[in-house]
Design goal:
Layout: H1 9-23, H2 25-49, E1 53-59, E2 65-70, H3 76-83, H4 88-101, H5 105-120, H6 126-145, H7 148-180, H8 186-193, H9 198-219
Antiparallel strand pairs: 1-2
Helix pairs in contact: 1-2, 1-7, 2-3, 3-8, 4-7, 4-9, 5-6, 7-9, 8-9
Pfam family, one: Peptidase_M50B
InterPro entries: Peptidase_M50B-like (IPR049500)
Keywords: Membrane, Transmembrane, Transmembrane helix
């Protein structure tokens, strides 16, 4: 069998393993916590970058999360903050894929560790603290104990996990809104902040994830 250009055997294995972590229900039940952590970190990062005051992050055992910030209740900053969560796993996944492709895995891991340190001081519940500590411990173990031959494939699997998790969580958002008729999702918040319906926002939030997968597929080689 001939593999597509830019995708060798180890890279294909990384993609397949990542796909299993996202698509197998028994695995996704646990791995989704990582996607939620990145999702809420996206909200938090954009809140700070747009001048809002970050007051707390919560990660729950049902894989939901909540990030609270203070500032103007409307306007570009609030819209950007509300929109940042769902694209965040895709953006981070693409950044990690680029780090692997350019030989900057160690730099990416140190940035990840620094980000987790910044996040942990804003976590406001015990389960959320557990998730961040476990994630931080995994990064420390990779940095301190793993060889480069181990670090690179592990980071590549993580990259593809986040790249695939991003679109899946957006699809789940659509189903969640239809089943529960919830009006508290990010899409509904964005609908209240703008003139676009929540369904349109749900579709728009899928675009960055699909684009990131396409870009990553072209650069992993």
């Amino acid at each position: 069998m001939t593999l597509p250009d830019g995708l060798d055997g180890p890279q294909l294995a990384a993609v397949l393993l990542a796909a299993a972590l996202v698509l197998v229900p028994g695995l996704w039940h646990w791995t989704r916590h990582a996607a939620t952590l990145v999702h809420e970190t996206g909200h938090a990062a954009v809140a700070v970058l747009t001048g809002r005051r970050l007051t707390g992050i919560r990660l729950h055992a049902d894989t939901s999360g909540l990030t609270v910030s203070r500032g103007r209740p409307r306007g570009p900053g609030m819209i950007a903050t509300a929109a940042a969560g769902y694209p965040a796993p895709s953006v981070v996944g693409l950044a990690l894929a680029l780090a692997v492709g350019t030989g900057r895995v160690d730099l990416a891991l140190w940035i990840a560790l620094g980000t987790l340190v910044a996040v942990v001081v804003h976590v406001r519940n015990l389960f959320g603290l557990l998730v961040v500590v476990v994630a931080g411990g995994a990064v420390v173990a990779l940095v301190r104990y793993a060889t480069v031959e181990v670090r690179e494939p592990v980071v590549l699997v993580l990259a593809w996990f986040l790249l695939l998790a991003g679109p899946r969580t957006v699809v789940e958002l659509w189903g969640h809104r239809r089943r529960r008729r919830s009006r508290t999702t990010d899409a509904d918040v964005l609908a209240r902040l703008t003139r676009l319906p929540a369904g349109v926002w749900n579709a728009l939030l899928l675009v960055p994830g699909l684009a990131a997968v396409g870009v990553a597929a072209g650069v992993v080689g």
